[in-house]
Write a structure and sequence with these properties.
This protein is of the alpha/beta class. The chain has two domains: 3-221, Alpha-Beta Complex (Spore Coat Polysaccharide Biosynthesis Protein SpsA, Chain A), CATH 3.90.550; 227-436, Hexapeptide repeat proteins (UDP N-Acetylglucosamine Acyltransferase, domain 1). It contains eight helices and 37 strands. The strands form five sheets. It has a 23-stranded parallel beta sheet that branches. Strands 5-4-1-6-10-7-11 form a seven-stranded mixed beta sheet. Strands 30-33-36 form a three-stranded parallel beta sheet, with no helix packed on it. It binds uridine-diphosphate-N-acetylglucosamine (UD1) and calcium ion. Uridine-diphosphate-N-acetylglucosamine (UD1) binds at residues 8-11, 51, 73, 76-79, 81-82, 100-102, 136-137, 150, 152, 166-169, 195-197, 223.
């Protein structure tokens, strides 16, 4: 027996008012379709089939990494018609699971519970009770509580519209049955669409039982039809991420003001995260790390005992044990700080290594540089690494002291324990241990008169 998952993703999503196909809109930097795909990938022995249509090539291109079969539905004539497009990929003994590309937060747990209800004699249907069921297909039950059919909102009688139990659209059934039913679905209804929901009545007529189950949380089955619902599900997702962080021992100052748009390779103990912090890509964070407000950390490694102060951007960088970064610091790709490094405000570091205990505390640009240990770099220091065409490296050896407002014209090396006088423009390598400076001599002019305003 094989499990085949059909993800219906051909709908246009008019209400998004977007040039982008609906299923490519994102929650936490992942498209809606990718969310559904990622969850179905967690199921054992699953073959995934995506039914695409509107904006088709764009959808296929954007998600070309998916291990799935793509089936085009040229015209969107309804959910039943969508499933019919995959008919020749479904075998009689398959179990077929139907998911929606615009329902991103359904969990593996809820799907497994649903799949547990599929047998040769039963169809599994995921339903949910909503206070406001407007727009949804209603689950109609007989006196004994057995499901008899689904009636779409637009086709429902006033009595049926009072029903609060609705169809999520998600169901699972044996291939043989599904194939025989979808061949017979008609479109004589209010929307003149081929409704997949018609299979429920067909099943009941053949003596097949409809077994319903419900998601742990109703938000799991919410679909995205407009931007408001998209932002609602983003918050639902983010609150769940914050919960997970707190469960593993992270202090989250305000769970409503944190965004995890990626994953964690590792998370230590006693991490504290202030408000408005965004995690992107794959991060690894050690023990006893505190992260200040308004900081973005992307694809980076933060070692133990690191303090990141407010308003920093750390992008594809490494921060070594006991280091202190910020406030207002920017670590760009390939910035690598060793242990106990201090990076202060308005400092930008790119493609540079900074060895143990070095300090760059104020207003500096360090790019394409190798900085030794115990180096002190004064305020306003700039590595001039670019001549407009090529990039060159600056090397600053252990123990060097760079005076404030120094420009280091790369390629250049500052020797071990060298001192550079403030305000210097360094164009040549400087020797170890010595003071080097390039500064015009200061003069004072005696008897100098300030200019005065001419009388008109
Ligand atoms: C559908 C159900 C309704 C249920 C609701 C839950 C039917 C007839 N109705 O209604 O009972 O309460 O979902 O949200 O099934 N799609 C295609 N091709 C099409 C039409 C739709 O791929 O021709 C896809 C859409 O991209 C979407 C999904 O199927 O992912 C649902 O389609 P939608 O038009 O939103 O169905 P509803 O009218 O909301
Ligand atoms: Ca819908």
């Amino acid at each position: 027996m094989t499990l085949k998952t059909l993800i219906l993703a051909a709908g246009q999503g008019t209400r998004m008012r977007s040039a982008r196909p609906k299923v490519l809109h994102e929650i936490a930097n992942r498209s809606l379709l990718q969310h559904v795909y990622d969850t179905s990938k967690l199921l054992d022995g699953n073959e995934i089939i995506v039914i695409y249509g509107h904006g088709g090539e764009l959808v296929k291109q954007s998600l070309s990494n998916l291990d799935a079969q793509w089936v085009e539905q040229k015209e969107q004539l309804g959910t039943g018609h969508a499933v019919l497009q995959a008919d020749n990929l479904i075998n009689n003994d398959d179990t077929v699971l139907i998911l929606y590309g615009d329902v991103p937060l359904l969990t593996k747990h809820s799907i497994e519970q649903l799949l547990g209800n599929v047998t040769k004699q039963s169809l599994a249907l995921l339903t949910v009770n909503l206070d406001d069921p407007t727009g949804y297909g209603r689950i109609v039950r007989d006196n004994e509580g057995k499901v008899t059919k689904i009636t779409e909102h637009k086709d429902a009688t006033e009595q049926e519209r009072l029903i609060k139990e609705v169809n999520t659209g998600i169901l699972a059934v044996k291939g043989e049955k599904l194939k025989s039913w979808i061949a017979r679905i008609g479109n004589s209804n209010a929307q003149q669409e081929f409704y997949l929901t018609d299979v429920i009545e067909m099943a009941v007529n053949e003596g097949i039982t409809i077994k319903t189950s419900q998601p742990e949380h109703p938000d799991e089955v919410l679909g995205v039809n407009n931007r408001k619902q998209l932002s609602h599900l983003e918050r639902v997702y983010q609150l769940a991420q914050a919960d997970k962080l707190m469960e593993v021992g992270v202090t989250v100052v305000d769970p409503a003001r944190i965004d995890c748009r990626g994953t964690f390779a590792s998370l230590g103990q006693d991490i504290s995260v202030d408000i408005n912090v965004i995690f992107e890509g794959k991060n690894s964070i050690g023990n006893n790390v505190s992260i200040g407000a308004n900081t973005i950390i992307n694809n980076s490694v933060i070692a133990d005992d690191v303090q990141i102060l407010a308003n920093c951007i750390i992008d594809n960088a490494v921060v070594g044990t006991g280091s202190k970064v910020g406030p207002f610091a920017r670590l760009r790709p390939l910035a690598e700080l060793a242990e106990h490094v201090h990076i202060g405000n308005f400092v930008e570091i790119k493609k540079s290594t900074v060895a143990k205990g070095s300090k760059i505390n104020h207003l500096s640009y360090i790019g394409d540089a190798t900085i030794g240990s115990g180096v002190n770099i004064g305020a306003g220091t700039i590595t001039c690494n670019y001549d407009g065409v090529n990039k060159f490296r600056t090397v600053i050896e252990d123990g060097a002291f760079i005076g404030s407002d120094t420009q280091l014209i790369a390629p250049v090396t500052v020797g071990k324990n060298a001192t550079i006088g403030a305000g210097s423009t360094i164009t040549k390598d400087t020797p170890d241990e010595q003071l080097s400076l390039s500064r015009a001599k200061q003069i004072s002019i005696q008897g100098w008169q300030r200019p005065v305003k001419k009388e008109q």
